[in-house]
């Protein structure tokens, strides 16, 4: 909460002592995260921009940044302070916060960037960290060795190894001051990976990605994306990632979508000096402007011509404010997008602003096979442009899994179609892969009818036809074709498949037969012949008749009605199909387990005929399909029954995330320590630090079972993280508990 008094913002409260240096996640959208970094000068909400303040030239006063803009942290350079006697003396005597007249979190850099710009610096490795600690900074930076993109492999390797070698002495000098451990490696994927692994083993508080300033200056955004993809998956996820020197708002959405937490910017001031304005779509010169690219509060009373007429310093100061306001506005937009679950869509939209950014985005979202010029998917044919010829495809697969696995499914709401990009959004990919990995068709099905042509729901338009098909042709697989792939009709309310807001020609597009055949195979429907029916066309029943003929299923009158009793039986069976299929995809049960769980079940149905509750044979409420997002809500009874049918041993450790090899093993189990038991039983959330073990296939947004160390069910809930994250976070919510099982003693 930001508190203001008489135009001044109150000073921040220090975090709790035991929390100092901890980082927690409060919201996430795939890899993008909103977090809180706990420091002695307040709890910094991330993603955050740390404006660079040169202690000699304060274009915007730090106090103004705090008071007017609510900026919670800034970065300055300890080497500059150290080199200037007057600054050094004041900082040593009164501390860096007093020197800058700033009450929030202060991060300092170490002089590495000066060595890159001007040659060697004269300060020692431990001396500069010791100095930063003495002047009371919140986050200090070690003296890393800068790696430039034009350096030879051997030189960059030296920078990586030397930076790592300096880490122990730097950490020792830092004592209990939080320390930045920069990642170097130039544009060499393997060196970035080595650097991430080496630096991640030391006890750093934050990991800046170093050596990227020249990459950004040269608009090499594809290299920037590659650096992120080779580094971030290997860093300890409980430490914030800082993009060193990245302050152009154009790069925020993509960076945040890939997991960046902190940015720092001298750009707001440097560009202002040069008469340039920052915008989310690039940089604009004031010299050519009649109107503002966006009207920011600081220029509300001026036209660009008014500002051009101002004295140079006044102009520079106003443009610096403009740039800062624009940068903060884009950051706020990104944060809201993370909350709304559409940061990737924002990155996708922004990627069209600059050809180099688009190139980076295409590289990110283009499967490796396609990058080698092979087209695995006939559905999408125009991504060849992103083809990569420098042998970097190998990294794509793993790092992309890291992005895709962390997407929350299912989600609620409509999905905006964005051309080809819709298909390769990580959320779409996650939904497809869960479906392909987990859904098991009934073996015997060799024929499929595929409906398409409208945005979902199909169920209303098809209700009669589905009953007819179930009654007469129950071994025909019914599917729907959506702009992002085929899905069994029973799963039509799973986002994003039939939820895509697209023009009708997209919905009515029928891809080539070969593509459909491949989709069927991905669903495990091998050697399945199919026919399609456009639901949007006139005479849908006639089209169905033609389809059945095409499938050589003759002698059926699709216009004939079904007896009332048979209608009820068919509807019951359709509901069973839906419950079984959803359990497979959303609870990761295999078909046999899913069928057993609801054997002899009954349904409570609402006025529209949709299932509200699924009750087991004994009448106990087991689960409910969620209308909001197509998910499943478990009850305690349902959770217990699922735990009872589990054949996997209970987890005994906190393993690394195991991406896709877990199909059919049931929802992940989270084992909590004895301290947490009474809270979980009362339905309270599980916090990091109280988890003793979990399954490797735990994923954010997915249902999980919560047990004690002996395997007794304590509750169930929705996981907030992956297994790898579970192993390292010590603060924040690990599982949002949805049901707690009361202690048997008290019953
Ligand atoms: N500022 C911008 N890039 C870097 C870097 O690689 N290291 C340090 N210490 N500061 C930077």
Task: List the main descriptive attributes of the protein structure presented here.
747 residues; alpha/beta; TIM Barrel; Archaeosine Trna-guanine Transglycosylase, Chain: A, domain 4; 3 domains; 6-stranded parallel sheet; 6-stranded mixed sheet; globular; binds guanine
Give the helices and strands, then pairings:
Layout: E1 4-5, E2 8-9, E3 23-29, E4 32-39, E5 42-46, E6 48-53, H1 62-67, E7 73-77, H2 78-83, H3 85-94, H4 96-100, E8 105-109, H5 112-118, H6 125-134, E9 139-141, H7 153-174, E10 178-180, H8 189-200, E11 207-209, H9 213-217, H10 221-231, E12 241-243, H11 252-257, E13 262-265, H12 267-273, E14 276-279, E15 282-285, H13 304-308, H14 312-340, H15 343-350, H16 355-365, H17 368-371, H18 393-405, E16 415-416, H19 421-424, H20 426-438, E17 447-452, H21 459-472, E18 476-482, E19 485-488, E20 500-501, H22 504-508, H23 513-522, E21 529-534, H24 540-550, H25 564-587, H26 591-597, E22 602-605, E23 611-615, E24 621-625, E25 632-634, H27 636-645, E26 668-672, H28 677-681, E27 686-687, E28 691-694, E29 703-707, E30 713-719, H29 723-728, E31 733-740
Parallel strand pairs: 6-7, 6-13, 7-8, 9-10, 11-12, 12-13, 16-20, 17-18, 17-21, 26-29
Antiparallel strand pairs: 1-2, 3-4, 4-5, 14-15, 18-19, 22-23, 23-24, 24-25, 26-28, 27-31, 29-30, 30-31
Guanine (GUN) binds at residues 109-110, 112-113, 141, 144, 146, 182, 210-211, 213, 244-245.
